Amino acid sequence: MSMKVNRLKKKSKGKNFFIKLPACRSPWIILIPSGSTLINPLKFRRSQEFYIVSLIELNCNYPTSIQTQWILKNNSNIIPFDSQIETTFSELFIPSRKLPFGIFQLELTITLSIYPTLNHSLSVYVEIIPTNIIPNLVQLGTSMITSGFEQDLKLDPGTYSIDPDQLTFDSTVNFQLI
Questions:
Q1: Counting C-beta atoms within 10 Å of the first and last residue's C-beta, which end of the chain has fewer, N or C?
Q2: Which residues partner with 4 through β-bridges?
C-alpha cells in the first residue's frame, strides 16, 4: 500500500522543490490514570472495579477511522480477558473480581484503518491486591450485642465474616501474623 502525501511547493533562490509531508502520522495516546511502571504499578483491590480511559489524538490531514484493541499481559505473556470485558473500546472497564491477584500490563493499540502500519501502543501497569476481610462475630455484623440472663450467645466469625474478593468466605483458612 503506498502512502499518500501532501506536496508542499517551496521557492529558494529561483529554484522550485517539493517537500513530501505524510498525510497521516501515528496517533498519540494518553492513558488515565497514568504514570505507572512495572516497579510502581497502580494498585486496585480485587473487589474494586476500575476504568482506564484513553485520550487519542489523530494526526491526519483527512478523516479516517481507527481500530482500538486492549491486550492483557502478565510477565510478557498475553492472557485472555474475561468474556464480559469489552476490549475494542477506547476505554477499558474491569469489573470487580475479574482479574486474579498479581501485576498486569494493560496495553492499548490504536491502528489507523487506511494505514495499518501507522499504529501506536501505550501501556498502564496495575497490581490487583487483596481486600481486607470484614470480620463479623454475629449475623448481620451488628456493632452492639445484648444478651439476657442464662441465654447462649454464639460468636461465629467463620460463618458471618465477609471476604469481598470472593463470593463466599472460607472459614477454614488460617492466617498467621508475622
A1: C
A2: none
- The verdict on 32 and 85 lying in the same domain is yes
Say how far apart CA 42 and CA 59 lie, in whole Å: 29
* pTM score: 0.71
Task: Enumerate residues 6+ apart whose C-beta is below 8 A from 26.
Answer: 59, 118, 119, 120
Whether residues 102 and 88 share a domain: the answer is yes
Q: What is the pLDDT of residues 118-172, one digit of tens each?
A: 889 999 999 999 887 777 777 766 666 666 777 776 666 677 777 777 776 666 6
Which secondary structure element, helix H or strand E, spans residue 29, and what is its range?
strand 24-32
| Contact (Cβ atoms closer than 8 angstroms) between residue 53 and residue 59 | no
Give the three cell numbers for residue 54.
Answer: 484513553
- The span from the CA of 142 to the CA of 25, in Å, is 61
What is the span of the domain harbouring residue 161? Answer: 133-178
pLDDT band at 10 (very low <50, low <70, confident <90, very high): very low
- Do residues 110 and 153 share a domain? no
Q: Which domain-ending residue is among 129, 150, 166? A: 129
Q: Do 31 and 101 fall into the same domain?
A: yes
